[in-house]
Design goal:
Layout lengths: L25 E2 L5 E8 L4 E2 L2 E2 L1 H4 L20 E8 L10 E10 L2 E9 L5 H12 L4 E4 L6 H11 L9 E4 L1 H12 L4 H7 L14 H11 L6 H26 L8 H13 L3 H13 L4 H17 L3 H14 L1 H18 L3 H14 L3 H29 L12
Parallel strand pairs: 5-8, 8-9
Antiparallel strand pairs: 1-2, 2-7, 3-4, 5-6, 6-7
């Protein structure tokens, strides 16, 4: 493997600049850069997802922004980097940037390639130029990788870099939506399982830095063609994924949705404060097969939505089902029911029954101690109410001790 040290200008081979014969690239706005634009029409489909799913539904992505602002499609910029190593390494810097932005006629995907590491400031300026006027940056794992790397590189080379104020990292909603079913939320796995897109002949990400180092020594960009395509597909996959997420929020529970996904959608909608739509998703999840604990979670989520919608009696019936199944959500449901019976219905027998159920479901000493205290208090209340009722009716309660006489 070639030495991945940061090459200086004198390290470049005598046959630089890059040979781009048969590649649809053109010199960039500044020397040391190559640029390629690809325009995809609204009707273009990446896997089973049309670009229009994103373009027409961006209003449903507002909950992913920090300020919950509604943005037009052309105010989003998608960004993906190919780098020489992992973020945090002194020798890691971006050499290929893929960006996408909606414009009249469709989606413009622009790729900017760094032919000489000494021109990295020009690469950062090209990113800033493409992002000008945008309100939200969209990445996949960019909060942990792409953006910190860009900012650290800008600081290191003493260059300016202005990015959109809002940042949507699609990895976070993807995990909330699909990790329960898919386990792995790597972009390539989401492509297969969610977007119905399979990559053929894709270059492994771990090998991409070596492709670039070989280019720096040879000046031949042709072997980098799979890397360029890998980057472009990453950008298109992000746009399609954003479209799926927007479509889910527009139509939370389509009939063909997997029950586990419907459960995850319900949880995500609860976080967004969309309780009516979340309740629909939880009901859809409960129509299909779910493991016991997931079913308890769906009943718990549905009950919480019903509470927010002011339907306390319906929520009580749903919480009873969750408590009957058990699990962590069943425990929470039993605790809620105990409080509801005690404070709203003043039904101490039922409150005691639910506290005993919660005690049976609890797994920590602290929880058992708290529930034990609640149980003793409830029994004391029941005894005092019973004693007061007996005195008012003239009945004589049996003594707690028996006389020997």
């Amino acid at each position: 493997m070639l030495d991945p040290s940061y090459p200086s200008e004198c390290d470049a081979p005598p046959h630089a600049p890059a040979r781009v014969t048969d590649l649809d690239w053109a010199p960039g706005e500044e020397s040391g850069l190559l640029s390629r634009d690809s325009l995809f029409l609204d009707s273009y489909r990446y896997g089973s997802v049309a670009l229009s799913d994103f373009i027409q539904r961006t209003v449903h992505l507002s909950h992913l922004t920090a300020q919950r602002v509604r943005l037009d499609a052309n105010q989003f910029v998608f960004l993906d980097l190919e780098t020489t190593g992992l973020s945090g390494s002194a020798n890691s810097y971006p050499f290929l940037v893929g960006m996408a932005r909606v414009q009249s006629g469709g989606l413009l995907v622009r790729q900017v390639f760094l032919t000489s590491p000494t021109r990295e400031p020009a690469l950062l300026r090209s990113i800033q130029s493409f992002c000008a006027g945008a309100q939200a940056l969209v990445t996949f794992n960019g909060r942990a990788f792409d953006v910190p790397l860009l900012r650290s590189r800008a600081t290191f080379i003493r260059s300016q870099l202005a990015l959109p104020e809002e940042h949507i990292d699609l990895l976070n909603p993807a995990r909330r939506l699909w990790r329960a079913r898919l386990r792995s939320c790597a972009l390539t796995n989401l492509e297969r399982q969610v977007l119905d897109e399979w990559r053929a002949g894709d270059v492994p990400s771990a090998l991409i830095p070596e492709f670039y180092y070989r280019f720096l020594h040879s000046g031949d960009a042709m072997p980098l063609q799979p890397v360029f395509e890998h980057n472009r597909r990453d950008v298109l996959a992000m746009v399609a994924l954003a479209g799926v997420i927007a479509r889910i929020h527009a139509e939370p529970a389509p009939p063909r949705m997997h029950p586990q996904d419907a459960l995850s959608v319900g949880n995500l909608l609860v976080q967004a404060g969309q309780y009516d739509a979340a309740a629909t998703s939880f009901r859809r999840a409960l129509l299909g097969y779910l493991p016991a604990l997931a079913r308890s979670e769906a009943f718990w989520g549905l009950g919480r939505c019903l509470l927010q919608l002011g339907r306390n009696d319906d929520a009580r019936e749903v919480f009873l089902l969750a408590a009957q199944i058990g699990g962590p959500c069943g425990l929470q449901a039993a605790i809620w029911l105990a409080k509801f019976y005690e404070h709203r219905l003043v039904a101490y027998d039922e409150a005691i029954q639910m506290t005993e159920r919660a005690l049976a479901l609890s797994s920590t000493e602290r929880a058992r101690e708290s529930l034990g205290h609640r149980l003793r208090r409830l029994r004391g209340k029941r005894y005092r109410v019973s004693s007061r009722t007996s005195r008012e009716t003239g009945e004589t309660r049996p003594s707690s001790t028996v006389s020997e006489e």
